[in-house]
Amino acid sequence: MDRSDVEFKTIDNVTLRGWMFKSANVEGKYPCLIITHGLTCLREMCLDTLAERLTSVLPVACLVYDHRGYGASDQKDNEPRNEIVPAHQNSDLQDAITYAQSREDVDAAKIGLWGYSYSGGHSLWVAANDRRVKAVIAVAPFITGDIIANNMRADLEDSFTEMLSQERLSRAAGNEPGRMPAVVKNPLDTAVMPQVESYAFFSACLEGILSYFPGSRIHKIGPTPLLMQVPKKDVVAITDTMLEAYNRAVEPKEIQILPGGHFTMFEGDEFEMMLAKEIEFLKRTLLV
């Protein structure tokens, strides 16, 4: 297995940085799986291990990168760090496809997507709209912005809406953007993901998140093969919400129910279970 540092430009000239993992002793060009992480996550958070394992057993390359404004990746001069804009991240994912296709060592006709949580939603959205994608794996995918609003304490809804309105006025006046923590230690405090298990996993344009519905076009992914891996006890992306979306997808599609919660599939037996299914799926789809 070989790992190298890479960088590429987005359509709006932002530099994204990451790694390219490649299997050893492969003749010819590599199928390429593009791997992206969830809300506020960096590539060092388990994605290196995932790519290493995949490239150790499959004749494949894995492109892993940080979202714009996070980790090693840049953002535009007039954009703040750590801002989450779904449209930007989706466009960047399509630019990652273009970058992979431009490489002499990659088979441009064999590009797959792997996305977790928020990026699981991106993978669904891009696969439904970009036929360059030949296989897609969505792990605990974000399906609808409604789950953020529905997870909010009822007594905070009015103040939260008012906060967003004031944020628009503040930005229009030229002030720095306001910030909200992705997670908090006390679930009674305000955060994007107030669940206790969210804080346990993390060490840090909510309007954009709330109005983002990547599962709305899941029925357009076919005939691209889809694998959804759904945690049985997910209180963040919500198990029932993911299952409802899967039922709207058309064939060819597959589902694996993982036994744990939203953050438990990156270690132990559950990781091995997830990985084994992904390897088997990729052998039948991306690698043929």
UniProtKB/TrEMBL annotation:
Xref: Gene3D superfamilies: 1.10.10.800, alpha/beta hydrolase (3.40.50.1820)
Superkingdom of source: Eukaryota
Stored InterPro entries: AB_hydrolase_1, AB_hydrolase_fold, Polyketide_trans_af380
Limits of the AB hydrolase-1 domain: 61-171
Pfam family of the protein (one): Abhydrolase_1
Family: Belongs to the polyketide transferase af380 family.
PANTHER family to which the protein is assigned, alphabetical: DLTD N-TERMINAL DOMAIN PROTEIN (AFU_ORTHOLOGUE AFUA_8G00380)-RELATED, SUPERFAMILY HYDROLASE, PUTATIVE (AFU_ORTHOLOGUE AFUA_2G16580)-RELATED
Entry protein name: Alpha/beta-hydrolase
Naturally occurring in which organism (per UniProt): Aureobasidium melanogenum
